[in-house]
Amino acid sequence: MLTLLPGLAFGRVTALFTGAASMIEPLFPSLRLQLKHADVKLSPAQFLAANLVSTIFTLILVLALALPSASALGSQSPMLVASLFAAFIALLVWTQNLAVPKAIIARKVLSIERNLIPALSDMLVQIHSGVPLFDILTNIGNADYGAVSSDFKRAVRRISAGESQAAVLEEMATGNPSIFSRRVTWQLVNALKTGASVSSVLSDAIARLGDEQVVQIQQYGGRLNSLTVFYLMTGVIIPALFMAGTVIVSFFITLNEFWTAISFSVAYLAVLFLQVLFFGLLRARRPNLL
Predict the structure, then answer these.
(1) How many CB atoms sit inside 10 A of residue 203's CB?
(2) Residue-wise over 126-165: b if at least 16 C-beta within 10 A, else e?
(3) Long-range CB pairs of 37-43, under 8 A, 24+ apart, other chains included
(4) What distance, in Å, lies between the first and last C-alpha atoms of the chain?
């Protein structure tokens, strides 16, 4: 949550806005599930109250800073200009804070799906070796499988406290943001309840995830074609045309050293920005199961 207030003061002020936040909670019907998937230990009303406090504090702070600046710049309506600027910044803060659970979920899904097939393969090997299911869950929880290990570690703690394996895994499935992991967990729950073979469930799950992985690779290859065209246009063709155009224009218009340096510096920074953007797109479009 983006705020400049100290933690204790922020918590006390947030409690005062919980009632107002409860009134706008119906406007965000999916927020409760998002907070659950993101492992945020707040109710929707508490989260919205914290967001309200952060937004209001940002509004007041920016307004206090922008009003003298607008007056110093000679604005005819400094209060109006400062208010509009402060409202814009506050709206950005509100939107950014609302997006925090989604960002946490996206990182968690990525960690789960990147480690899901290796974790399931490890479980299958242990099943074939005769290791009990509880010991397998413990081993996976203590292994290095990212969010998969974290979920299993929490499940093991609850099972050790006396809860049944099926009930814990069932609840773990409902709180899992990854659709692939959720399907596998539900299949394990059904196998435990019906007495079916866990090894068969794991084998089928790994096979289906392998098929899905192939589909995602094919889709990623299709996206790479358009990204490659984008890279060639922005990283090769357009800079080459700019260089050629600059050389041609220099024959008709005499450019001094300063403007020549500015032109090539801007072109270099633009190409550098587009290169970074391209590699960011490559990373963002990469399938989670890879």
Answers:
(1) 16
(2) bbeeeeebeebbbbbbebebbbbbebbeebbebbeeeeeb
(3) 37/101, 37/105, 37/108, 37/175, 37/176, 37/177, 38/100, 38/101, 38/102, 38/104, 38/105, 38/108, 38/177, 39/104, 39/108, 40/101, 40/104
(4) 31
- The answer for residues whose C-beta is within 8 angstroms of residue 231's C-beta and 6 or more apart is 278
With beta carbons less than 8 A apart as the criterion, state whether 88 and 66 touch.
Answer: no
Q: What percent of the chain has pLDDT over 90?
A: 40
**Residue 47 token pair:** 């989260």
Residue range 260-275, pLDDT digits in tens: 777 778 888 888 888 8
Query: Which residues are CB-neighbours of 96 under 8 A, at least 6 positions away?
Result: 2
Contacts of residue 189, defined as CB under 8 A and 6 or more positions apart, other chains included, come to 166, 169, 170, 173
Structure tokens at 196: 């079916």
User: What is the Cα–Cα distance from 206 to 128, expressed in whole angstroms?
Assistant: 15
* Cα 117 from chain centroid (whole Å): 21
Distances in Å between the Cα of 188 and the Cα atoms of 18, 78, 172, 183, 240 are: 40, 64, 11, 9, 57
Where are the domains positioned within the chain?
7-109, 110-209, 214-284
Q: Are 113 and 181 in contact (CB under 8 A)?
A: yes
CB atoms within 10 A of CB 217: 13
149, 141 Cβ separation under 8 angstroms:
yes
Residue 10: half-sphere exposure toward Cβ, Cα within 13 Å: 18
**pTM, rounded to two decimals:** 0.76
Q: Could you give the C-alpha distances from 166 to 139, 170, 190, 261, in angstroms and in order? A: 18, 6, 8, 68
